Amino acid sequence: MLELDGLTVEYGDLTAVDDVSLAVGEGELCCLLGPSGSGKSTVLRAISGFETPAAGRIRIDGVDVTDAPPNERDCSLVFQDWALFPRQTASENVAFGLRMNGVGTAERETRAREMLELVEMEGHGDAYPDQLSGGQKQRVALARSLAVDPDLLLLDEPLSNLDRRLRETMQLELNEIHDRVGTTMLYVTHDQDEAFTLGDRLGVMESGRLVQHDTPEAVYDDPADRFVESFLGTTNFVECTVAEPGPRPRLETPMGVGFEAGIEGSSLAPGDAVVASLRPERLSLSVAPAEETPETTVSDGGESAVAVPARVEETVYRGADLRIRLSAGETTLFVEPSVAGAPPVGAGDAVVVRFRPADALYFDGTGARCR
């Protein structure tokens, strides 16, 4: 439905979007995820016709619109700041695009009413923007974009100005609206949780490049490189060195514990740098028994697990879970057990962290995955 082929946008010597190729299927909700300045919003502006590409092609529903003006592209853009007209009512704002397209008054009013009902804003059609809450303004902006029945809806961080609870509510409502109308959507966000909640597929951007594009599950379970792994959420990066190469190379770590990495068929050489990513949810924590010694390997459901002696530095209560900071040799580790499942430990206590090497992800010195 939407195809980007080598899209490049430049501002003088700065390449804001660098050779991005992306396909979004009919009826799909694709999230573009990345830090500020990674080029996400510039991609949207190029698609909608507000930026001129230096190279590449843009196709919407099979039609090349690269050189078409914004009003000749069948897409709508929802802005971060809502961009409602302050002297128009909610209904008039929703009907604005229809009026620009020459739609008659009666049809405009009917369509505006239908769209306000869709976003659960019936009864607010006569209200002006300054009489609406942030969430209500965002609903009106969404209704306005959907009123013209676009082939493609572009959303540029539309929920970022809302408080957390309202943002989470609006995410679920947006999912429901998408399921009902089936409009193809490209949604820009820097919020990982939002992207996982909304996206049928995720595109991760870094420094103008599309680093990975896949389902949320595939991106999380199989990140393309260290940047993707670091951006998706909290993890523990442990700097390691290859001690013994082979199909399951042995790694030495600053935790005071060595282990055989879960890297099948690796071509790593002795002395090579490897970074192991140990996600907090894959780590188990227990009080250290008196006889525990470093580099202990234990059985865990038939698979070997590495036991790392550590000491609690800080425990932070976060409601449903705890964030526990540990020192393990020369490394700091974080674990995040549920409150109900956490062992009774506090600052200064000796503990043991366990993980299975197969649950870790491994990256070489360039940040590429070791597979």
TrEMBL record:
Family membership noted in the UniProt record: Belongs to the ABC transporter superfamily. Sulfate/tungstate importer (TC 3.A.1.6) family.
Function: Part of the ABC transporter complex WtpABC involved in molybdate/tungstate import. Responsible for energy coupling to the transport system.
Name this protein carries in UniProt: Molybdate/tungstate import ATP-binding protein WtpC
EC primary class: translocase
Compartment(s): Cell membrane
EC number: 7.3.2.6
SMART domains reported in the protein's UniProt record: AAA
Keyword list, A-Z: ATP-binding, Molybdenum, Nucleotide-binding, Transport
Lineage: Archaea, Methanobacteriati, Methanobacteriota, Stenosarchaea group, Halobacteria
SUPFAM superfamilies tied to this protein: MOP-like (SSF50331), P-loop containing nucleoside triphosphate hydrolases (SSF52540)
Organism of provenance: Halorubrum rutilum
Topology of this chain in the membrane: Peripheral membrane protein
PROSITE patterns: ABC_TRANSPORTER_1, ABC_TRANSPORTER_2
